[in-house]
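For the sake of transparency, this paper describes our internal protein records without simplification. The remainder of this section carries one protein's record, kept here as part of the documentation:
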Amino acid sequence: MKRFIIAIILLSAMSLSAAVFMDGEKLTFNVKYGIVNAAEATLEARTSVYQGTPVWYLTTNARTHNFFDKFFKIRDRVESWWDKESLLPYKFSKNLQEGRYRQHRVHIYDHARRRTTYQRWSFRENRFENSEMDMPIDAQDILSAFYYVRSQPLQVGKSVMVNITADGRNMPTEVLVHRKEKVKSIFGEVECLVIEPKLKGEALFKQTGNILIWVTNDAFKIPVKLESKISFGSFTATLESAQKVPLKLK
């Protein structure tokens, strides 16, 4: 599952008045390793408050099913607090448990100063190691970047650039739009755009290989399918249920 939410991970809204997603949108994916239904992953966006300011609270959760835990247990949670007016993140948190690998990292963003505080949890010392660094004026985190790209007028053969600050580094990221393709989905057969984020760094997972994402070719660009290679094979994630979406379920 390692790379699911990078997927889930690489796209956000230029203007929420454009209503590229609804308050309470929740997308649930069935994740297969080969032919095995191994995990479930969700992507959710809802209204919340961060230190008194209205925000979009964006979350992704990924977990393997109980029977698969014996082979490779995953319990991942990623969160973003995203300002509703400026559409810039206040805070980004990533908690990963993937097999024996553990990771807990936090970014606190100060856009006025163009600085970010990076907190990296030391499991050995049981404390955060803090550092401060410069960042671009329009920096997104990995999760808010996903919704940014969803709002863009994507065209085959063209790409979208997003400045992402996460994991203690600034990562200018190109999202390629490869082709149009019809896909069977919970919305029926829909035309999709096949996109590929070229994120440098660890993203949301310890990644290997490329990620391909199929998003509906409309104003909402709902992800319906993801494919990627991981450290011990490959996975396919397929949208199996959706709440608070503008498309009708079949």
User: Anything to note?
Assistant: The chain is about 5% helix and 55% strand.
